[in-house]
Design goal:
The protein is mainly beta. The protein contains three helices and 18 strands. A hairpin with an 8-residue loop joins β13 and β14.
Length: 273
């Protein structure tokens, strides 16, 4: 018995020694915890990477057999991509603080641009929420009803597109429209650096053809965020019907689309003036 009592007292002493060496970090539900904790998950991009600038509150089944992802375009006023990916001079003029491209990928690899349910998306900071709907062509800048929620500003969306938090609000400045006959210069149509969403027509197009220098996307609009109509094969030749800064408009089947001038060689009267 004395031996057993000795072993128990020794074990008790060892336990006390171990406990005394462990720091006792007691977590309380005080203000500091409330400032850092947020129950809404961060919205990841397709690689699984997250950023604190965007969270979402998404109902189950919002996308059937797939998921919603967020790719940051502008973070804390710093552009992570070329401004052409925003594609809206009016949005840039408002002063973009945060911007994310919200999209859905199905498990089989396909995409959808309309969701089963609207859901709340929240961008870090205070300001005004604007949206460029991926289902529109061309995309029209629209202001959403935003609400302050802690350190985030939130709004509801039900389609894919670009969600932005801007410094300025109210009526968005109108983007200069490209009108008239293709090839006719439009007074006042200007570009922000790197933006091709509202370009000026830069010259008359006559007997012009375009030869593709590599497999390239044909887009519905003259910007890199618009709908992809098809992919044009290398070394194919197409008739040009219009020309704006950075892009050629060509005839494809029974419609027209836009090709970046980085991936094509033009011959003839192609509006290069």
């Amino acid at each position: 018995m004395r031996k057993l009592a000795f072993l128990l007292s020794t074990l008790f002493a060892v336990c006390l020694l171990i406990l005394s060496s462990v720091p006792m970090n007691i977590v309380t539900a005080g203000p500091a915890m409330q400032a850092t904790y947020d129950p809404r998950p961060l919205c990841a991009d397709r690689t699984g990477a997250t950023t604190p600038i965007v969270r979402y509150d998404i109902p189950y089944g919002t996308v059937s057999s797939g998921g919603i992802y967020c790719r940051p375009l502008v973070q804390s006023g710093q552009y992570l991509v070329n401004g052409a990916e925003i594609g809206s001079q009016a949005a840039i003029d408002l002063g973009i603080n945060q911007a994310v491209d919200v999209y859905a990928i199905l498990f089989g690899g396909g995409t959808v641009t309309s969701f089963n349910n609207p859901f709340k998306i929240c961008l870090l900071g205070a300001g005004y929420i604007y949206f460029l709907d991926a289902n529109q062509s061309p995309r029209t800048l629209q202001q959403l009803t935003g609400e302050s929620d802690g350190t985030y500003t939130c709004a509801s969306v039900s389609t894919a597109g670009i969600v932005m938090l801007t410094n300025s609000g109210g009526a968005a400045p109108a983007a200069p429209a490209v009108t008239g006959t293709p090839g006719t210069p439009v007074p006042g149509a200007t570009l922000a650096p790197g933006v091709t969403g509202t370009p000026a027509v830069i010259g008359a197009v006559g007997n012009c053809t375009l030869t593709i220098s590599k497999t390239v996307r044909l887009r519905a609009e003259a910007n890199t965020t618009s709908k992809i109509l098809t992919r044009l094969a290398y070394n194919t030749t197409w008739t040009v019907t219009g020309r704006v800064v950075g892009w050629y408009q060509i005839i494809w089947k029974d419609t027209q689309g836009w090709v970046s001038d980085q991936f094509a060689r033009a011959t003839g009267q192609c509006g290069n003036g």
